[in-house]
Amino acid sequence: MAMALAQSTLNDLAPDVVHPGYDRAGLRPGILHVGIGNFHRAHMAWYLDRLFAQGEGHDWALIGAGVRPGDALMREKLQKQDWLTTLVELDPKGLNARVIGSMVDFAKVEPQAVIAAMSDPAIRIVSLTITEGGYYVDATTGGLDTDHPDIAHDAKGPALPRTVFGMILSALRNRRKAGVAPFTVMSCDNLPENGHVCARTVIGLAGLSDPAFANWVQENVAFPNSMVDCITPATSDRERALVRDSFGIEDPVPVVCEPFRQWVLEDNFPQGRPPLEMVGAEFVADVSRHELMKLRILNGGHAAIAYPSALLGHHFVHDAMADPQIEAWLRALEIREIIPTLTPIEGVGYGDYLELIVDRFANPKIGDTIARLCLDGSNRQPKFILPTVQDALADDRAIDGLAQEIAFWCRYCERTDEQGQEIPPNDDNHDVLREFALASRRNPVAFLGNRTVFGPLADDTRFQEAFARKLTLLYEQGTRAALDTYLAG
């Protein structure tokens, strides 16, 4: 019989399950994290749990927070198990389980409760995992999308915010009024210069209603950049059964992940930080090149395999990587067009990093799905692929493979694969994307007319030509022929 996860049952778990040996009742909160999803619990919460197990940083425990309806359900489930999470690492050499105990509370999912938690002087870091599309970035200007209804709402009524950024600003006002130092705001999302993006959103929103306060935020609040990395699939019945059957734990919201993590942070924390370097995190003066390496080689690589694999009917990522065409396509695109846009990093070999990525994608234990990689393309493509296109164009480098990747995405947005099977929508903008994709059957460059995604890049004639050529090839000969054409050079 599986045992329900709870603080009271930890000592009764199987001997091979690592669980908190430290006194959780003695932990004191120091970080409030918004977005308690799988990635956060496999990454930041894991690092902190290991730090606490060494007897260090016990005043940096986590408080969870959320702003979406789904966050309330997560809070309810985690509360029933004393904020604990079962984490299983899917190592091909053998599974291992760890119960993560670094979270000690979760604010009620309502604006005033989140603001009150952020306003607490004990909170010195507010961190975010809110997805790449959660920062209200205008694709044309790169700044704040001031026309978005959520931003317009918070600009008009800053005392009753709807967005996490409005809540951050309300808490900062409270702290300033009370003479409490501002917290550091740390993005943990897969965005180029995520700290700078977060700062532009927060400061830009403040400026819409109170320019003087916006200036204060700019001068007094730190927004460090960071690079985060750990492949973390979504939780389904498959993962719940694995945790129950392999480790005897009944956990409705377990997390599984690969046995690899990386966290590189800009060391800019005026109110202090946990000593995460003790458990493998790296603190550097400038994280931008590490960040760009990961975003382009790993996240760009995910995008590269996602759409042709979906069109061919692959379900799992490891099955796609077992398809010789898909693996060869990934390697060729990375080596010919993605890696050449990166500047060298001392002590880092991009070829070695690519081999690591190929091995990680091919891990059959992870059970990561192609559908997850295809998720939210309208926000991910502008972060992981289009900047690479722009840099390649600026340096007069090859873009045929990158144009082919975008052509695969366009064809995918029609929402049927090559066998005629329906592809369920998995993008908030799926209807708009499908409209542009279907219009490209008549005019191949019509897809580029979606300026919310492509911005000024849509007007580049060399990009238009390459995209139209690759999309036409895909229409006329199909995915495998398109892959073969690129591989043939």
Question: How would you summarize what this structure contains?
Answer:
The chain is α/β, with parallel strands linked by helices and 489 residues long. It has helices at 38-42, 44-53, 69-80, 111-119, 149-156, 164-178, 194-209, 211-220, 237-247, 288-312, 317-321, 324-338, 350-361, 370-374, 377-384, 386-394, 400-412, 430-439, 451-454, 461-477, 479-487, and strands at 3-4, 17-18, 29-34, 61-65, 85-89, 96-100, 103-106, 125-128, 184-187, 226-229, 249-250, 255-257, 262-266, 282-284.
What structural keywords apply?
about 500 residues; alpha/beta; 4-stranded mixed sheet
Please explain how this structure is put together.
The chain is an alpha/beta fold. It has a 5-stranded parallel beta sheet with strand order 7-4-3-8-9, sandwiched between helices. A 4-stranded mixed beta sheet has the order 2-6-5-12, with helices on both faces. A hairpin with a 6-residue loop joins strand 5 and strand 6. Helix 7 runs antiparallel to helix 8, helix 10 packs parallel to helix 13 and helix 10 packs across helix 15. The relative contact order is 0.10. The model has no long low-confidence stretch (mean pLDDT about 95).
